[in-house]
Amino acid sequence: MKSADGVKTLLEIINSEKSKLVVVVSAMGKTTNMLEEVVNSYFNRKPDLAQNVQIVKEFHKNLVNELFCHCGLDQAPPPPPPQKGGEQVLPIESVGCTSQNLPPEGGLRGAYRLIHGEGDNLPALVVDIYGSTAILQAHSVGFHNVRQILAEILVEEIPEVENVYYKSEQTLPFKAQIEPQDEYLIGSKSDCIAVENGLKIYVDWLKGQKTGFFIDQRENRSLLEHYAKNRDVLNMFCYTGGFSLYAMRGGANSVHSVDSSAKAISLTDKNIALNFNDDLRHKSFAEDAFKFLENIREKYDLIVLDPPAFAKHRDALKNALQGYKRLNFRAIEQIRSGGILFTFSCSQAVTKEQFRLAVFSAAAQAKRNVKILHQLTQSADHPINIYHPEGEYLKGLVLYVE
């Protein structure tokens, strides 16, 4: 709870030209009083920036206009009515990084999401931390226009961050006609070995998918480790081999990693060697997933299905659901009796209910008795704003197949 003086101070900041940056600074977990000090200090040290407030104004205007255009509105709605004796209650007080409030143990410090868009009250902005490098990803023209400011704040406010890589070529609206480039804003470190729950993982943010690694599956990978002992594991769509690493450490008899990308398989092999040297329990296959699953006949008793998004838009929903059904049917039909299936959808357009129905249909078609052991979602540093249900993009089930 902020004091009356604290709220007044924050209101004054918000009404000034500096206000448009407060949301950025507050994402570092600052309190109200510290916010004023940070913002004032920043502008005192950056006189050239203070003179260029038009860029900051454009950031705010572009971000708000884009968000409301996506909602089908011509313009932003009027501000909410004043409260508490004429002073407006400010949502900015809730802005902050969820990752900063999570327990420090485990894999969170080595590779984690610092800012998760709507979930951290900063729509259209994603920041992932890999060791000493922050990966900054903008989904709006507004954040694109202040990318250098964001990079400087990240380096100043996060002690371990020395490099900032901007990766937004594929995420900014194409209608904006701004031709963004992926580039280093600060520093130049080209690769990284991140540590997640004691496992070392090469991260390729230059050419890899998203920001280089799927941090959102951290807790689900850890869960799989507890099921892996003495099992024969198949990791489909393995990408960099995250689930394979945990299965190996969990004591699996064998681990097979499959991905259609030869580069992904190369990176998986590299990660396996980094952690387990020349352990012969692991084999990798650069093959199409659906073809690989055609004839695995009771070869595995733990299977991971973590495909890329089958539906990035609602017009692809029908085909996506058929794809999930077909994929899960092949796994459920052929997994050994008593087998465990980890199955996921990362398609934002697919709801939990629709995904579960697709898996149910696959189980019915396979004529196998199936029990749900766990219902999974993304890691805690990918929070879901209760008013933005689309933020729950990752859905997962752990199934026991009799």
For this entry, give a set of tags.
single chain; 402 residues; alpha/beta; Transcription Regulator spoIIAA; Rossmann fold; 3 domains; seven-stranded mixed sheet; five-stranded mixed sheet; 14 strands; disordered N terminus
Question: What proportion strand?
Answer: 15-25%
Sheet with most strands: 7 strands, mixed
At CATH level 2, the architecture of the largest domain is: 3-Layer(aba) Sandwich
Order of helices and strands: HHHHHEEEHHEEEEHEHEHEHEHEHEE
Task: Give the overall shape, derived from the CA principal axes.
Answer: globular
Assembly type = single chain
Structural class of the helix and strand makeup? alpha/beta
Structure report:
By secondary structure, the protein is α/β, with parallel strands linked by helices. The chain has three domains: 4-94, no CATH class; 98-193, Transcription Regulator spoIIAA; 214-401, Rossmann fold, CATH 3.40.50.150. The protein contains 13 helices and 14 strands. It has a seven-stranded mixed β-sheet with strand order 10-9-8-11-12-14-13, with helices on both faces. It has a five-stranded mixed β-sheet with strand order 1-2-3-4-5. Helix 8 (218-227) runs parallel beside helix 9, helix 9 (242-249) runs parallel beside helix 10 (262-276) and helix 12 crosses helix 13 (352-366). The model is unreliable at 1-39 and 51-95 (pLDDT under 50).
